[in-house]
Design a protein that fits this description.
alpha+beta; two-stranded antiparallel sheet; 8 helices; flat
Length: 259
């Protein structure tokens, strides 16, 4: 049983600013304004929140401030991406993205104590590399050339969903930028989860969903990990994965019947 055959039946111009903060039109946007806007948007989009203290224009102003703060990450993100592309070399697939505004608001709602100006993955880039040795080589270069503010090893300690990758946070022009390093297998897993989540309208990126779906992707992630690291599969893994596949197929069949 090899990793890349496990999904067979289940795969269904931004402006920037250069200042120390961000800009809204020609107005300076301070981190205090950014954080207050984040609080307004969290309240506005939270179920059961008391909106009596706000006026109708407060939401639009807050969203405008969020948009300016998001756009202010564009140029720093490009700088980091260019550096990552140079270190990763031609063997890597490198991409960048600014987190969409609705995703930022959802994160604020999910994490009530989070301040908008402290979110570290508004700007993010990713390198997909052939194998773990290639990933380790890029990690060594990053540590030698960049100031790394935070590291998260989701390969050694995967998320409950089965997600695996290495995450780093660096900074350019006062903006925190997240860098993700993945192997080809980890990217295959993530692409499949994203496609499945979109097809069935499931919040799998938030590690939420029906247990048969979550268990299938946990098993798939473990299988890919063992495959890429040339490790033996855990005892009884084949039976566990077979049960997960069967439960997943039954869940998908049930969705078809309900449609």
């Amino acid at each position: 049983m090899r990793a890349f055959g496990i999904f067979t039946d289940c795969t269904p111009p931004i402006p920037h600013t250069d200042g120390p903060e961000g800009q809204r039109g020609h107005m300076q946007v301070t981190k205090g304004q950014v954080n207050r806007s984040g609080d307004v948007l969290r309240d506005w989009h939270s179920s059961g929140a008391d909106l009596g203290m706000y006026e109708m224009g407060d939401h639009d102003l807050a969203f405008e401030t969020l948009s300016a703060w998001r756009a202010a990450h564009s140029y720093p993100l490009t700088k980091v991406t260019n550096g990552l592309r140079f270190m990763a070399g031609p063997q890597a697939r490198v991409a960048q993205r600014l987190k969409r505004a609705p995703q930022i608001v959802n994160k604020l709602v999910r994490q009530p104590k989070m301040k908008l100006a402290r979110i570290e993955d508004i700007g993010g880039c990713r390198a997909v590399l052939p194998d773990r040795a290639s990933v380790d080589a890029v990690v060594s270069k990053m540590r030698g050339r960049w100031e790394i503010h935070r590291e998260r090893d989701y390969v050694a300690d995967p998320k409950s969903s089965g997600y695996r990758a290495l995450h780093f946070v660096t900074e350019r022009d006062g903006k925190r930028i997240e860098v993700q390093l993945r192997t080809v297998g980890q990217q295959t897993w993530a692409d499949t989860v994203e496609s499945f989540a979109a097809t069935y309208e499931l919040p799998l990126k938030d590690e939420v969903g029906p247990e048969p779906v979550l268990e299938f992707f946990r098993c798939a992630g473990l299988g890919i990990y063992c495959d890429e690291h040339l490790l033996d599969f855990p005892v009884n893994f084949a039976d566990r994965f077979a049960r997960a596949q069967a439960a997943m197929q039954q869940w998908m069949t049930d969705q078809t019947k309900e449609a």
